[in-house]
Predict the structure.
Amino acid sequence: GQSLNVRDNRAASQATIEYVVSIGDTLSQIARRHSVGRAAIRDAQGEPLASDLIHPGETLTIEVSLGGAG
């Protein structure tokens, strides 16, 4: 399943979430789902990912933009 933990970044217009990779997930799908680029996900990891290869159970840190409420 999916697990999301949102950290409060009050001074920023971004939030950091932790996404647990599920069977069948691809980096492209995850990036699209969170409206970020694959490179942004790769670079946001403590140790940047060398490729788009991810594995079920792996936890990815994703920085997402907090869209302004209209």
Q: What stands out?
A: The first helix runs from residue 27 to 33. The mean pLDDT is 85. The helical segments are 27-33, 38-44. The radius of gyration is 12 Å.
